[in-house]
Amino acid sequence: MKTSIELAQVIYGYWAKRFGCDRQDFVHAGTLVIHEKELAETGKVYLYHIDKMSIVRIAPSLAKQARLPDGYNREFGALDVNTFQVVVPASVESTLLDYYLDPKDFECFTAGVPFTTRQMDAENDRAGLLPLLEACTEADLDAAEVSLEEPDPVIFGVFEGAQLVAYAGHRYWDEAIADIGVLIHPSYRGRGLGKAVVSALCEWSMRNDLVPMYRVYSSHIHSHRIPESLGFKEWVVIETLKVAQEERTG
User: Fold this and answer.
1) Which of 2, 52, 120, 219 has the least C-beta neighbours within 10 A?
2) Alpha-carbon distance 77 to 218, whole Å?
3) Which long-range contacts (CB under 8 A, 24 or more apart) does 146-152 make?
4) Got the DSSP string for 62-126?
């Protein structure tokens, strides 16, 4: 299992690689501006907050309108939504929260009788997986990012008898981070089974030297319960902004 220092190194290392910056930048209140021409017609701006640092993905014309610096600038400070909105009218469409689990904070939880928990195989357990997926809505499946066509490499399930009633799987980020998705049968929600199946997956992940990660929308308050109750802590905030009207420059 990783120490707290190793956990930070993995998280900072992943995002530093993603955005082409130095992992030490995250401990300073600076802003990295990344120009993306393909965002020009969308009016979308993506603002990441990682530790003390802010990263903004933005169309070059909007960056100019917002009077943002080029590249990384520590003297500019960490950009926040309010500061951006003073210069450019924009609304926050959504806010994602990335929770990560430090082994020292982990609060293990198991499902009681009559439920059992075990690791599953997408191919060999396909017959058991299908009824759960069919009982859930498309919105449920999209939120959990669960698909038998592209199965998660590691899956755990909670069963009542032979029936699968709760599912947790993860996808790998750089073979170091386990991005978790969870799916609960509609008839079994509110009974702690999501917490139990995610707990089992977290135990496996940490034993295999992976960092568990759980992503939720800030507006989905009930979705915060599982990661927070198991000891996850919020590390990354991702805000999607929609600009009211981009200023035309000649």
Assistant:
1) 219
2) 24
3) 146/181, 146/183, 148/122, 151/122, 151/123, 152/122, 152/181
4) HHHHTTPPSEEESTT----HHHHHHHS-EEEEEEEEEEE--GGG-------TTEEEEEE-TTTTH
In a domain, 249, yes or no: no
pLDDT of 1: 84
C-alpha 168: how far from chain center: 14
Say whether both 32 and 139 belong to one domain: no
Please count the CA atoms within 13 angstroms of the CA of 121 that sit on its side-chain side: 2
- Give me the count of residues in the chain: 250
C-alpha angle 175/24/179, rounded to 5°?
Answer: 25
Single-letter code of the amino acid located at 141: L
Structure tokens at 233: 């802590």
Instruction: Give tens-digit pLDDT for 195-210.
Output: 999 999 999 999 999 9
